[in-house]
Design a protein that fits this description.
The protein is of the alpha+beta class. It contains 25 helices and 18 strands. It has 4 domains: 273 residues, Biosynthetic peptidoglycan transglycosylase-like (Penicillin binding protein transpeptidase fold, Orthogonal Bundle), CATH 1.10.3810.10; 227 residues, 3-Layer(aba) Sandwich (Beta-lactamase), CATH 3.40.710.10; 115 residues, Beta-lactamase (3-Layer(aba) Sandwich); 64 residues, Trypsin Inhibitor V, Chain A. In the N-terminal section; belongs to the glycosyltransferase 51 family. In the C-terminal section; belongs to the transpeptidase family.
Length: 803
């Protein structure tokens, strides 16, 4: 039995046949009031009738009513509605009483007096049709109409529909037998409610509530007299009396219903006349419920959600079964889409690109620790016209519509950093990294052996210091450093980390290729959703979650949740390793790093640029502890070409880079998405992760080699002199310029520390010492003191005595 089917009680067959024959004798007809010639009916032999009755079905099996499925965003706003029949079932109490009276008045005014077959009504209709030479009046009871609609609703193939609607005696006999069974099991009110929920009211509106909302913008409970009369008149011929396409015919039919209601004393003459004077429809109030993702505000996200639903085995064994179930089961599908963050992504796309560009832009944002895909946007709009596309550039090619990614360049270096830290290599680890490195024929270990490239001489796209640390190399995106680092630790640990973080080829669904250039990103095609989710794992301190777009599914029929794959979160990196990656990638966002120009706000940010060979695509991926995002700008028209020279944001690109081209798309999207949220910081990385298990080195710059060596020996290190040329330094010639390892990096206890000796080339020559000029000293004039006069002395003739 089909899910949701109900089976009526089995009434006595003999009694039912007796009722059937009695009614047939009274009415002189077996038909339910459709155009059956009387002579044809009379020509049906007793044997034929017996054979038909012998195989009468015992009960009516009904299929579940097709209901529309609604896809909701995280804030419960509607993303899309999916349906084959736009229907919202209601109870009797949710239908206006005047609507119940109107439908009974025009379709079966003796509905509450007769049984399964209205013998009087059938005979009256038959006689009128016979005298007029055509079909002027139907004689089917509402119960019989309900049976016919149920059989059509149950049909799944064109052949089944034909069998349910064929104008044959056998079908009419079967319908009557079903109607008898239905009348025995259900009350009149229940039959009427089911009929109104099943009936078609035109313009893709099934059921009374969907029709009321479509034509009048009110629920069935709020229908007034003229509205109810119009809908009651529609069921006879929904297309012919369509109030949108044929308003005059619709009004004429509505007025017939109103006059019939007056004849039956359901309404007064004044009520009928007042209703007749009203317009049949207000076009401004007509509400269209579009179906499908093409009509969604977020068509690409919607299609991705539907693809995930179709992959759910709870909805059927085959894709067709699942699709039919999704469009008829009446589901409420809640998703992870955050309208605020989605608006941020769309604003960024519109700000930094244009729909008619040759190069395309796409950005996705994922919540760390949950895998919830909060937003996805792209520059090329949805559609089949020129400049439009049905491809979703944010997702994998595992379903129709998924573009399948772009090469992601140096954003892969993040996984090399994680693998190196797992191998206890500190972030201060230095490697001599020339601008060009010959790796031709050099062996790289893989998970299954070794691999090499016979002609491989990679180079750096940026300048860096001669012996960068891991942090220095990440800030400058130094290719030759990370290639040597990946060769030292092996490709297998890096590929394992990447796979654990959900990285695979989005075009083939296979693992990424382990080749010497693995760390540079030429290993497969990656999507923004995939990369942002992988980086979200670093933000979540090593907790990986599969990307999630469907958060819950509820059945409107049962009001129960339906099982759906939820977040699958598990630890793939230790918190310490993830903290170390965050520390390194945070330095990329600082002054001197390739991500410095897209840093914003007060929260800690981490990120990495990515550029692939021949500039087929450029990337920027980055995150805070609350949100991760990845943006790509690339050529989406195979075969991919260099985007330099292509039109992007309305003008030809003269240059292309992860920081300058894709970076602004990421920056604007993330900045707007995080707006209003509290600032956040990364957990501080352990000192052993940053520097390894090391001791501090003393400051030796400017000391003589002998004094420096003595100090190192005293601290337990093994000093050696550099045997190369003296180095350019601002330290005096012949003194220590720096050490390897560097003083700020430290070194393990007992480690060899090489003293690099300065040639003094950058030392500032002190100015010559000039002794200060001493001005001549003039002895002061001393006035002799005034003394008392000595006794008379000819030398002092003027001495005054007696004072």
């Amino acid at each position: 039995m089909h899910r949701g089917e109900r089976r009526a009680k089995r009434p006595n067959v003999v009694g039912s046949v007796f009722v059937f024959l009695l009614v047939s004798a009274l009415a002189g007809a077996l038909a339910a009031g459709l155009a059956l010639p009387f002579a044809g009916l009379a020509g049906m032999t007793t044997a034929a009738a017996h054979n038909s009755v012998q195989y009468l079905p015992q009960d009516l099996q009904t299929a579940p009513l097709a209901q529309r499925t609604t896809i909701l965003a995280a804030d419960n706003s509607t993303i899309a509605t999916l349906y084959q029949q736009n229907r919202t079932p209601v109870t009797l109490k949710q239908i206006s009483p005047i609507m119940l009276k109107a439908i009974v008045a025009i379709e079966d005014d003796r509905f509450y007096q007769h049984g399964a077959l209205d013998a009087k009504g059938t005979l009256r209709a038959l006689l009128r049709n016979k005298s007029s030479g055509g079909v002027q009046q139907g004689g089917s009871s509402i119960t019989q109409q309900y049976v016919k609609l149920s059989l059509v609703n149950k049909a799944r193939t064109p052949e089944e529909v034909k069998q349910a609607t064929n104008d044959t005696y056998e079908r009419k006999i079967a319908e009557l037998r079903y109607a008898i069974a239905v009348e025995k099991e259900l009350s009149k009110n229940e039959i009427l409610t089911r009929y109104l929920n099943l009936a078609f009211f035109g313009d893709r509106s099934y059921g009374i509530d969907a029709a009321a909302m479509h034509y009048f913008g009110v629920h069935a409970a709020k229908l007034n007299l003229p509205q109810a009369a119009m809908l009651a008149g529609l069921v006879k011929n929904p297309k012919g009396y369509d109030p949108i396409d044929s308003p005059k015919r619709a009004k004429d039919r509505r007025d017939v219903v109103l006059r019939r209601m007056h004849e039956l004393n359901i309404i007064t003459a004044k009520q009928a006349q007042d209703a007749i004077k009203t317009p049949v429809l207000n076009p401004a109030k007509v509400q269209v419920v579009p179906s499908g993702c093409a009509n969604s505000r977020y068509p690409f996200y919607c299609e991705y959600v539907v693809a995930k639903l179709k992959a759910n085995p709870a909805f059927g064994k085959t894709t067709d079964e699942r699709e039919n179930y999704i469009e008829t089961a009446g589901l409420v599908v809640r998703t992870s889409l955050d309208p605020k963050m989605q608006a941020a992504a769309e604003t960024s796309i519109k700000q930094h690109s244009k729909a008619g560009d040759q190069a395309v832009a796409a950005v996705s944002m994922v919540e760390p620790g949950t895998g919830l895909v909060r937003a996805m946007a792209q520059s090329r709009p949805y559609g089949a016209k020129k400049g439009q596309t049905a491809y979703n550039y944010n997702v994998e090619k595992s379903y129709p519509g998924g573009f399948g990614g772009f090469q992601n360049g140096s954003t892969m270096k993040a996984f090399t950093i994680a693998a190196a830290i797992e191998k206890t290599i500190p972030t201060t680890y230095r490697i001599n990294s020339p601008q060009t490195l010959d790796l031709s024929g050099k062996a790289f270990s893989t998970c299954n052996g070794t691999v090499s490239d016979p002609n491989y001489t990679p180079k750096n796209s940026t300048k860096t210091i001669a012996d960068p640390s891991m942090v220095d190399a990440a800030k400058a995106s130094t290719n030759t450093y990370f290639l040597q680092l990946s060769q030292q630790i092996g490709l297998c640990p890096i590929a394992t980390v990447a796979a654990d973080l959900g990285m695979y080829d989005a075009q083939t669904m296979k693992p990424l290729k382990q080749v010497p250039s693995f760390t540079l990103g030429s290993v497969g095609l990656i999507t923004p959703v995939m990369l942002s989710n992988a980086y979200a794992t670093f933000a979540a301190r090593g907790m990986y979650c599969t990307p999630v777009v469907v958060t819950s599914i509820t059945s409107l029929k049962t009001n129960k949740n339906i099982s759906t794959p939820g977040p699958n979160c598990h630890r793939v990196l230790s918190p310490g390793v993830a903290d170390g990656v965050n520390y390194v990638l945070n330095q990329v966002m600082q002054n001197g790093g390739t991500g410095a120009k897209v840093r914003f706000g007060s929260s800690d940010l981490a990120g990495k640029t990515g550029t692939i060979n021949e500039n087929h695509a450029v990337w920027f991926a980055g995150y805070s502890s609350k949100l991760a995002g990845a943006a790509v700008v690339g050529d989406a028209d195979p075969p991919a070409k260099d985007i330099i020279g292509q039109v992007f944001n309305g003008k030809k690109l003269k240059d292309a880079s992860g920081s300058g081209t894709a970076g602004p798309v990421w920056e604007t999207a993330m900045q707007l998405a995080l707006q209003g949220l509290p600032s956040s910081k990364f957990v501080k990385a352990d000192d052993k992760v940053i520097r390894g298990n090391v001791k501090d080195l003393p400051y030796l710059k400017g000391m003589t080699p002998a004094d420096a060596a003595a100090k190192l020996l005293q601290l337990g290190f093994k000093p050696v002199m550099s045997h190369g040329d003296r180095v350019d330094s601002d330290a005096p010639n012949g003194t220590v310029a720096w050490t390897t390892p560097r003083q700020e990096d430290g070194a393990p206890e007992g480690a060899i520390v090489t003293l690099m000796i300065s040639n003094g080339s950058k030392a500032k020559t002190p100015p010559p010492v000039t002794p200060p000029v001493t001005p001549p000293v003039t002895p002061p004039t001393i006035k002799p003191p005034t003394l008392p006069c000595p006794p008379w002395d000819p030398r002092y003739p003027k001495c005054k005595r007696g004072r």
